[in-house]
Amino acid sequence: MAPEWVYNLPITSKVDVYSYGIVLLEMVIGKSLNVMHTAENGEIREHKRLVMLVRENVNIGTTTKKSWIEEIIYPMLTNNYDMANMELLVKVALQCVAEDKDERPTMTQVVKMLMSHED
């Protein structure tokens, strides 16, 4: 659930972008967030935990690209994926789940980012 819903902020199309980012992350990681836990202050902890897990793995500068991708990818994929495409999916997803709606891309921008990598 996008932060706008939790904090009763104006709802825009960026809410859909946030949801799309969560779905992408769920597919890549292989974990569902159907059961959500809300903290006392109303924050959605499960979404934040998932996003933080991925961001931490992406931001660790001491590991190679291959290792951070392998660290977060759903194990059942068993290296049956294109590394560059998976990296793109993760990076697009992370942009989509930015806390600040103004930092999220539009869906048109998301499509362009994903299509730019198509061969």
From TrEMBL:
Compartment annotation: Membrane
PROSITE patterns xref list: PROTEIN_KINASE_DOM
Cross-referenced Pfam families: Pkinase
Keyword Nucleotidyltransferase applies: no
Keywords: Kinase, Membrane, Receptor, Signal, Transferase, Transmembrane, Transmembrane helix
UniProt xrefs under Gene3D superfamilies: Transferase(Phosphotransferase) domain 1
InterPro entries cross-referenced by the UniProt entry: Kinase-like_dom_sf (IPR011009), Prot_kinase_dom (IPR000719)
A GO-annotated cellular component: membrane
SUPFAM superfamilies xref list: Protein kinase-like (PK-like)
Domain Protein kinase residues, every copy: 1-119
Name this protein carries in UniProt: Receptor protein kinase zmpk1
Organism: Quercus suber
